[in-house]
Amino acid sequence: MIGATPPALRFVFTITALVPDASDFIPLEDRSGEQLDFIPITGGSVEGEISGDIIPGGGDWCVTRSDEAYNVEARYLFRTAEGEVVDVVNVGVLRHLTDSDNSQVDMGYFLTTPRFRTTSPRLQWLTRSVFVGRAQSLPSKTVIDVYEVLQ
After folding, report:
1. Helix (H, G, I), strand (E, B), or coil: what is residue 2?
2. Multiple choice CATH, 7-149, 3.60.15.10, 3.30.420.140, 2.40.160.20, 2.40.10.120
3. pTM for the full predicted model
4. What's the CA gap between 32 and 29, in Å, rounded?
5. Contact 42, 18 (CB under 8 A)
């Protein structure tokens, strides 16, 4: 039965994307109580089964929603230690959680669905699987633990 057992997850790597202070975010749109900002990605690293460095120049298009949640869509590249380039498109949601008293817990929900593209024969497995990320937004970086969804 397909719905009886959830798929397993396998940890693959951690992405640490460096971002500037909020004062350096670039506002792109503001209407109906929602705002779209561009958050530059200035560098960072990938550590785990694949290791490498984030190539500066990517960014995160972040929509601040009227319900105090955020929709994020990040696009950037990283270069592995072996010189292979991987394109990342990572879409996600960041929002408050509530505790047992229905009080808000500070931005405890930050999940993403990263997709990868590469011409590297060694890394084609990245293009043939589904991945989920559990992220954390910190003052100067976003840290994402990436998991491959298994059958």
Report:
1. helix
2. 2.40.160.20
3. 0.90
4. 10
5. yes
Tell me which residue has tokens 């408050």: 96
**Which residues in 81-126 belong to E strands, given as ranges?**
85-98, 104-118
Instruction: Specify the length of the chain in residues.
Output: 151
What the block records as the tokens of 84 is 């292979």
Residue with tokens 């396998």: 10
Q: Please identify which residue in the block is written with the tokens 């949601």.
A: 93
Output phi, psi for 124, to 5 deg.
-60, -25
Question: What digits encode the pLDDT tens for the residues 104-139?
Answer: 667 688 999 999 999 999 999 999 999 999 999 998
Cα-based torsion angle of the residue sequence 18, 21, 26, 32 in order, rounded to the nearest 10 degrees: 110
